[in-house]
Request: fold
Amino acid sequence: MPENFNLASAVWQHSLSAPQSVAIAHNGKTLNYEQFAAQAQNVAQRLSQSPDWQQRSHKPMKVGILAARGMDACVAIVGACWAGTTYVPIGLKLPKEKIQAIFAACEFSAIIADEEGAKLLTDNVWSACPELMVRIGQAFESKSLDQSQAMPCQQPVQVNKQDLAYVIFTSGTTGVPKGVMIEAGSVQNYIQTMTRKLAMRATDRALETCDITFDVSVHNMFVTWQAGAALYILSANLAMNAVKLARTEKLTIWNSVPSLVGMLQQLKALQPGCLPDLRLSVFGGEALPHSTASQWQAVAPNSAIFNLYGPTEATVFCLAQAFSPHTPITAGRGFVSIGTPISGCEARVVDTDGQVVPDGMTGELVLGGVQLARGYLGAPELTEQKFPVWNAKRWYLTGDYALRDASGDFHYLGRIDNQIKVFGHRVELEEIDAALRLVSGRDLVGAVAWPLVDGMAKGLVGFIAGSDLDQAQLLAGLKQTLQPYMVPQQVIALESMPLNASGKVDRKALTALLQETAHIVASV
Amino acid sequence: MNNRKQKIKDYLTDKLKSQGDNTPLADSDSLFVSGRLDSVAMMMLVVYLEEAFGVDFKGADFEVSLIDSVEAIALFVESQVCA
Reply:
């Protein structure tokens, strides 16, 4: 592996060797590698005019990207990479205070915005720091720079493994966004490993269904472009067109969260055999129910299915499982196992003292290896707490429960945060979800602790997507499946399940729903 | 047909109102592509159309444009009911 490299140099190489190949398609428009490279180079050159650019080896030059998922966002990211800067995607839907907090934490040298993003740059945000603003496809604005000066960045610059590739802000549950700093060497390992593992080809056409603020986009973009393949982007409001797009464009690779499959099922968009061109389906971002994987196999009979696991803090994904009829199923959860660590990554299951537990025992999943983040931006204490050093080796505490089975496969069991106590009994909400899924035959389900008295759970309520459910039959089924204290007091059929921004069942919204109802009852 | 269209429009107007959106709804207004309603509302709409009109989305080769406006929904329902 070369010591110096550029994460997006493949885009440059493909622009010379296969200029006419499609790199990105979005809303019926396409950008070939030659056009893509020309636009990205334009961005890189503009960034290289910042006075901070010459100093970037001493102080990382951070570039904020305010752009919706689409071609502009891709151009911005590759341009920022080529210029050797650190890109920081900023969610367009974030509340203004959060955007300001990100600006304050990052001290951006430049901002790249698409049309929608530029609207958010109100005067007080704009004055908060950046010297340079790049509007894709338009003349750029600068407070002080001489726009006629030479543009030093003529081709992708070389970076070191320790340079920061990107900072992705994850929504901290406390409301303070945490900026996860990922180094170029981590991303390089990820791209090279996955390109090999998934046997990526230049003829592939891959689906993109996530925003650039979600690190799964790093997989979708960089792994696709590394191979010289085409990325087909679906805007958020058109996510339900995924099957239609896959059929008409004969996509070969499906990338999504498992929940999207559940939603497409509700829309009756999935028929057995309807996606024969898919050769590969990649699911990640949340647990993959075995039932979803089996149904998907029927929909896409020629597709290999991969279940990928990983937190943002360990660069996209770091464990992988190829799904087959023999794939281990996680007992009590009904999830597909998350498999084994990919090259360069390590995983252990430990007890509360950090000691490895025997196979088959539950503990916290910790991760190690080259993909670990440098830490959280401007939060050294949190970094130290979440990335402890044991025996001179750094680990990341995932906050996920897991076990390793006798054959060495890892199993995700749920969030530690989701472990609640009901009358003193430890209950993991994922286990209740699995039972709800089993007895209802539906994929979109969610259990929450309810009622809460002084913050303590006094019981459970289960939610199931659908309208024609037999309450009595469901409860009878749950009683057969679960220990008595785990059986929800009530199962509520919701015509539609609230999902969070990343497409996962939103437990907070479900609890809020119960709170609202309780309030109404109380006020009558 | 107009009766059905009005029912659909009433349903959607109620839905929008429940989300604090009181802007009048024109027959050709985009509901989902514009982001006025989200994917959760889309699921609910599909369930509603199935229950109220016996529409079967199976085999419809689903895409958002089929149900993105009152006009589109009415045409789709019509094609299903008369089929």
The first strand of chain A starts at residue 4 and ends at 5. The interface with chain B takes residues 236-241, 243-244, 247, 263-264, 266-269, 271, 465, 467, 495-499 of chain A (CB under 8 Å). The mean pLDDT of chain A is 88. Chain A has 16 helices and 32 strands.
